[in-house]
Specification:
Layout: E1 5-6, H1 7-14, H2 18-26, E2 34-35, E3 42-44, H3 49-60, H4 65-76, H5 82-114, E4 123-127, E5 130-139, H6 146-159, E6 168-172, H7 174-177, E7 181-188, E8 202-206, E9 209-217, H8 223-236, E10 241-251, E11 263-270
Antiparallel strand pairs: 1-3, 2-3, 4-9, 5-7, 5-8, 6-7, 6-10, 9-11, 10-11
Helix pairs in contact: 4-5
């Protein structure tokens, strides 16, 4: 093979189109070994074949340009920086695995939705009265989940290890319909209120309450299917909602790092006159 390949020859060798090679050059991903100053013709070296094919695979896998440049810089440095290169690859592989997992779960949810026989079990139940420590707040529009984590930190500081029952939350429907609303996060607590607790924490008595109840299994990607099931049950049975839903985290991230083992009780609270 010649020491210098025209862009056409390099294209034939790598199966990368001339247009793609020009784009790689413009993006500063694969700079030709030589560019004729008079004609502008690009020439490549045989040593650039493997980098060119590597770039193509990474772009096929949607590696961001910034990360790809970091990888290439680490690979081409004097005394290649293999640690940095491996970090870039490992981080992107984790993103791909996460994306694959989300895709698989979306496919499973779609199969369930398209199966007329598939129906999540819902029952009408009385939830017991319970004394809890609670943090209530107005969740603003566009908020992430930091508010929940902060509330749980305050509750853990107040209850310590004295709460043995799973935590829960009560959420206005507007949190889901409008993207903002009132939320109350709680932990069951029967002991006297500790003398020093964060200022956000207060005692709350949850009365006996009627709810359409289903237990969601696994990750929360398809929690909307369980919500749909309890909402449909309430509608079919002409049960008026309190405009509140309660979740109890029977098994969650605090208990196991295996999401397939998570169990979340979803309770669509029913207005008292329906009871």
């Amino acid at each position: 093979m010649a020491d210098r390949l025209t862009i056409g020859e390099f294209s034939r060798v790598t199966h990368l189109s001339i247009r793609m090679l020009r784009r790689y050059h413009e993006q500063d991903l694969l700079v030709p070994a030589e560019v004729d100053p008079d004609t502008g013709y690009r020439y490549y070296s045989p040593a650039q074949i493997r980098p060119a094919l590597t770039i193509r695979r990474f772009r096929d896998l949607d590696l961001p340009l910034a990360d790809l440049r970091r990888f290439l810089a680490a690979e081409s440095a004097d005394g290649p920086d293999f640690g940095t290169a491996q970090q870039v690859v490992a981080a992107h592989l984790r993103r791909l695995e996460d994306r694959l997992g989300r895709t698989q779960r979306a496919v499973e949810a779609l199969r369930e939705l398209l199966d007329p026989e598939a129906e999540r079990a819902v029952t009408l139940e009385e939830l017991p009265a319970r004394r809890v420590l609670a943090v209530s707040l107005d969740v603003p529009r566009g908020a992430g989940l930091d508010w929940y984590d902060e509330a749980m930190r305050d509750l853990d500081a107040a209850a310590g290890e004295r709460s043995v029952l799973p935590p829960g939350g009560r959420y206005e429907h507007t949190l889901f319909t409008e993207g903002h609303g009132r939320a109350t996060v709680y932990v069951p607590f029967d002991a006297p209120l500790p003398p020093e607790v964060p200022g956000t924490v207060r005692e709350l008595h949850l009365p006996r309450r009627t709810a359409a109840v289903a237990t969601h299994q696994g990750r929360h990607d398809d929690l909307d299917l369980t919500y749909g099931a309890v909402g449909s049950f309430a509608a079919r049975n002409d049960l008026r909602s309190q405009d509140l839903v309660e979740e109890v985290y029977l098994v969650g991230p605090r208990d196991t790092d295996r999401p397939e083992r998570w169990r979340t009780l979803v309770a669509w609270l029913i207005a008292p006159e329906n009871g």
